[in-house]
Specification:
With 284 residues, the chain is of the alpha+beta class. The protein folds into 2 domains: 94 residues; 160 residues, Beta-Lactamase (2-Layer Sandwich), CATH 3.30.450. It has 8 helices and 8 strands; from the N terminus they run αββαββαβαβααββαα. The chain has a 6-stranded antiparallel beta sheet, sandwiched between helices. The longest helix has 72 residues. The protein is rod-shaped, with a radius of gyration of 37 Å. It starts with 5 loop residues before the first helix and ends with a helix.
C-alpha cells in the first residue's frame, strides 16, 4: 500500500487512535442516543420495542464496549510505557558502552604517549625537543601522539597535516628525511630568513608555516610501513628548536629496536582514529 495514499493514512490513524476514538464515540454519541431513547418513553421501530427497553440494552452494550476498549487501551499504554522504558534502558546501555569505548580509546592514546615518552628519554632528548607520531588517513596525517618534557611544545596546534606539504610529504615519499644544519634561528629581525629557508626545502604555504608554534631547526622523520611491509601508513617526527640536534644513525638504531612496538600499537588503535570531519570539529 502506498504510504502517501488516503487509505493508508486512515488505516494508520485507526491503528494509532482507534481505541481512543471508539471510547469518545461511545461516551459521546452513545450516551446521547441512550438519553434520547429514555426521553422518548414510547414504542418505536413500528411498535416492536419500547424506547426504554432499547435504551437499557444500548446502555449495557455501551458499558461492555467501554470495558473492552478501556482494557485494550490499558494494554496498549502499558506496552508503550514498556517500550519507552526498554528504549531508555537501551539508551543507557549504549551510553555506557560508548563511555567504555571512549575510555579504552583514551587509554590507548595515553599509553602511546607513554611509549613516545620512553623513546624521548632513551634518546636523551630535552626541553627544546619533541616527538610526534602521525597516522595516514584519507590523504592526510592525523596526530596520534606527541611528547615533550616541555608542556609548551607538547600541545597540538593543528588537527591534521596534508600529506603533500612540509617535510612530512618528503618523508612519506622517500621513507625518511633528515635536516640538521643550516636552518636560521627564528628571532626578531630574521624571521623572514627562517621562512624562506624552510620553504626552499619543502612545499609548504607561508600561512601554514607561520601558524606552526614550534619553529624547529633540526628534523628527523621516519615513515613506517604497515604490518605487511607494503604501504607506508605512519610517520614519526623528531624536531628540535636547537640546530645540529639529531644523530641519524643513533635514532635509526633505537627505532629499529622499537619498531615492532610502534607497528603493533598503530594497528591496534586503527579503529580508534576519528574520521576527518569529526577530527576537524572536535580538534583531535
Amino acid at each position: 500500500m502506498d504510504k502517501d495514499s488516503r487509505l493508508y493514512k486512515l488505516a494508520l490513524f485507526i491503528d494509532n487512535y482507534g481505541l481512543e476514538f471508539g471510547i469518545l464515540l461511545i461516551n459521546g454519541l452513545g450516551y446521547t442516543f441512550i438519553g434520547i431513547l429514555f426521553e422518548l418513553n414510547k414504542c418505536i421501530l413500528w411498535d416492536t420495542i419500547h424506547s426504554h427497553t432499547l435504551g437499557w440494552a444500548t446502555f449495557f452494550i455501551a458499558i461492555i464496549l467501554n470495558i473492552w476498549c478501556g482494557y485494550h487501551l490499558f494494554k496498549k499504554n502499558k506496552n508503550i510505557n514498556e517500550l519507552i522504558s526498554e528504549k531508555n534502558q537501551l539508551g543507557e546501555k549504549v551510553q555506557d558502552l560508548e563511555n567504555t569505548i571512549e575510555g579504552l580509546q583514551r587509554n590507548n592514546l595515553e599509553i602511546f604517549n607513554e611509549l613516545l615518552a620512553a623513546l624521548f628519554y632513551k634518546l636523551g632528548l630535552s626541553g627544546e625537543d619533541r616527538i610526534s607520531f602521525y597516522k595516514f588517513q584519507e590523504n592526510k596525517f592525523h596526530i596520534v601522539g606527541r611528547y615533550s618534557s616541555n608542556p609548551k611544545l607538547a600541545g597540538k596546534s593543528r588537527n591534521y597535516y596534508n600529506s603533500d606539504e612540509g617535510f612530512i610529504a618528503i618523508a612519506y615519499e622517500k621513507g625518511h628525511f633528515h635536516l640538521n644544519e643550516g636552518i636560521p634561528e627564528f628571532v626578531q629581525g630574521s624571521k623572514h630568513n627562517y621562512y624562506q629557508f624552510i620553504r626552499s626545502k619543502c612545499n609548504i604555504p607561508l600561512d601554514t608555516l607561520k601558524g606552526l608554534k614550534m619553529k624547529s631547526r633540526s628534523f628527523y622523520l621516519y615513515a613506517f610501513k604497515d604490518s605487511k611491509g607494503l604501504v607506508r601508513n605512519s610517520i614519526i617526527v623528531f624536531e628540535s628548536e636547537m640546530s645540529g640536534r639529531f644523530n641519524e644513525a643513533e635514532i635509526e638504531e633505537v627505532l629499529l629496536e622499537e619498531k615492532t612496538k610502534f607497528l603493533a600499537f598503530i594497528e591496534r588503535i586503527e579503529s580508534d582514529l576519528p574520521e576527518l570531519e569529526t577530527a576537524t570539529e572536535t580538534g583531535f
